[in-house]
Amino acid sequence: xxxxxxxxxxxxxxxxxxxxxxxxxxxxxxxxxxxxxxxxxxxxxxxxxxxxxxxxxxxxxxxxxxxxxxxxxxxxxxxxxxxxxxxxxxxxxxxxxxxxxxxxxxxxxxxxxxxxxxxxxxxxxxxxxxxxxxxxxxxxxxxxxxxxxxxxxxxxxxxxxxxxxxxxxxxxxxxxxxxxxxxxxxxxxxxxxxxxxxxxxxxxxxxxxxxxxxxxxxxxxxxxxxx
Length: 227
Description:
76% helix; mainly alpha
């Protein structure tokens, strides 16, 4: 009587044939489960593709409306009526939540509210921007810095300091380090902590590459008795 051949002793085509036959046997036994799984996978794939195309189309429409609003803003600004486009940015922010255009509209809204001295409305728009999942980019740093400015104008210098410090410690705030230090220094000056004010004005000067800004910072340091 011949010795039974083990699967691991098979080589080349013979081994592949045994594996294939084993798979067919398993497939027959689990036919119903395989059909259901295939339907589910197909449905998920179609749904994801449809969602992606819908989202892509939505992003395109949102950005088109945003660009039109920005063009209107530039035209109205020459006549001192830029606030008239506020409603359009509000519509984009509300109708296209989750898009980049909606995030940028919130930033624009905040800036427009600052210009009309509606600081609470500005802070509301900026806070919504920060909860929108926007990336840690330069726009985000500008939003946080603008929040600091709102608190500074309101006279809440400690809260303003918190926001300005977030900017200089953020990835997107690298381009605004000198301005950030100057903002922090100004808050300490308001708080009458002149030693810290001088320290941060000096750091701002070290980071600044703009000649006009350097002259302003030098003057501030002289006025505080450093130079």
